[in-house]
Amino acid sequence: MTLLTKTQLILATLPVVIASLSGAEPIFEDATKPLNLGIGGGQVAWGDFNNDGWEDLHDSSLWINERGEKFSRFTGEGPSGHGIWGDYNNDGWLDFYSWSNGKLYRNESGKKFADVTPKALANRPMKVSRGAAWVDMDNDGYLDLYVAGYEIWQKAVYPDALYRNVEGKDFVTHELPKVSNMSARGVSAADFDADGNVDVYVSNYRLFPNRLWRNDSGGKFTEMATPSGTAGDGGLGAWGHTIGSAWGDLDNDGYLDLFVGNFSHPPAYQDRPKFLRNRGPSGKFAFEDKSNGAGLHWQESYASPALADYDNDGNLDLFFTTVYAGNTSVLYRNNGNWKFSNTTNPAGIRTAQTYQASWCDFDKDGDLDLASGGRLWRNRGNSNHWMAIQLQGKGKVNRAAIGTTVRLKIGEQTLTRHVNSSTGEGNQNSLTLHFGLGTNSSKKIEATILWPGEMSQKQLIESGKFNLIKKP
C-alpha cells in the first residue's frame, strides 16, 4: 500500500476534523458495566441460543440477552472455549462448535448443552486451531464444518480439515485436494461467484499465501486464490501474515468483495491490508486490488476485521483490530467509491490490542453495536433509515440460513448482505442481516433472497423493523 499524498491525507482525515469541530457527541458509548457484562478479551460470537428473539453473546462464557436491557450469565451446562453458532441438526436451536477445543455442543432446547463431539472431530488432525466456518458444501440442507489447522511454533504445522454432516447425526472427514499445510488462522465463507455454492477463504499466517476454495458443487473444491487475485502478493514470496479476513459488498454492485486483514511487519515486501473488489461476471469473478488511495493507514499488528454499516448510510464500514501494545484498533467509515475515513476518535471507540470484533444490534433499536476489547460499544444511532432481516431455511437450506445472500435494489445501487458464520479470526457477527438505507424513507423495499443452491425468492420487506423470512 503506497503512502498517501498530502491532498489524499487531507481528504482522508476531513470527516474526522468536521466531526471534532462540530462538537458532535461520540456515536458509541461503553455500555459494558451498565449491561452487567463481564466479557473477556477473547473472540466472541452472537447467536439467539434460547429463541427468545434477542441475540445472546458467547466469549468463553455464555451471556443471556435480557431484552436488550441487561445481560445475565448462563448458569447451566454451557459450551466452553471460543467458537461459532450453527444449527447442525436443523432442530431450530443453535448449536456451538468450539474451534479452540475441538468440541461440538448440541443445544438442548435452550436449557443446556450436551457435548456430542463425533469421532471424526475428536480425532481431527489439527491439534491447534484458530478458526472455523459452518458451510453447507453440498447443499443438502445440513451444515458442514471447515476447521483451520494452525501450528505449534517451530514444531508442527497442522492441516485444514473439512467435515461432512451426515443428516445431523454424525460428521465424517471429507477429503480436500492435496495442498501444503500453511498455519491457517481465520476462515470465512461466502458465495463470491453467485453460483449457489458457498466458497471458503482461509487467512494464512507466517508469510504464506491465502487460500480461496471455490465450491464446484457436490463437495468438490478447486483452490484458486492465485488466479483470482486473492492469494496476496509479497513480491519476494513472503505475503502478509494474514490473521483474519471478511466478505462484504463494499461498493454496492451486488457482488461480495473481500477485505484481507494482513498483520505485516515493516519490511515493504510483506503485504499490507487489502481491499479487493469482486469484478463480477464480466470480470470472471476475479478480484481487483483497490487498496491504494483507499485511505487505510498502515500500522504493525493489524488482526481481525469485521464489516458493518454502523451509520446506516448504506455503505459497509470497517472495524479492524490490532494486537501490539501501543497500537489502536480502528473504525473506518466507507465514503463510497473505495474511499475510507478514520472515524475512531469521533465515534468514541477506545479499544487497544485485541482479536475481538463482532457486530450485532443487541438492543434491536435499528443500529449495529460492537463487541471488542472486552467491551460492548452501544451505538446511539442517527436519523438514517434501516431494515433487518432474519432468515429461516428448511428442506435443502439449513435452518439458520447460513450461506444465504440478500440483495436490495435502491436506485443505481444494489445493497448486498450475506449470512456468514464467521468473520476475521474466530469471531461471529449476528446472523440477522442489517441494511442501512440512508435517507431513503420507503416503507417497503423488494428484496431478492438467494438461498443456497441458486434458489431465488422475491419479497417486500418493511423498513424500520425486524423481518422474518421463511424459505417457502
Fraction of residues in β-strands: 35-45%
Structural class: mainly beta
Oligomeric organization of the protein chains? single chain
Uncertain residue ranges:
1-23
Average residue-wise pLDDT: 92
* Helix run count: 4
Distance between the termini: 46 Å
Helix content: under 10%
| Largest sheet, spatial ordering of strands | 1-30-29-28
Summarize the structure.
The chain has a four-stranded antiparallel β-sheet, with no helix packed on it. With 472 residues, the chain is mainly beta.
Provide an overview of this structure.
- With 472 residues, the protein is mainly beta.
- 6% of the residues lie in helices and 39% in strands.
- The strands form 10 sheets. Strands 1-30-29-28 form a 4-stranded antiparallel β-sheet, with no helix packed on it. Strands 2-3-4-5 form a 4-stranded antiparallel β-sheet, with no helix packed on it.
- The longest helix has 17 residues, at 6-22.
- It starts with 5 loop residues before the first helix and ends with a strand.
- Residues 1-23 have low confidence and may be disordered.
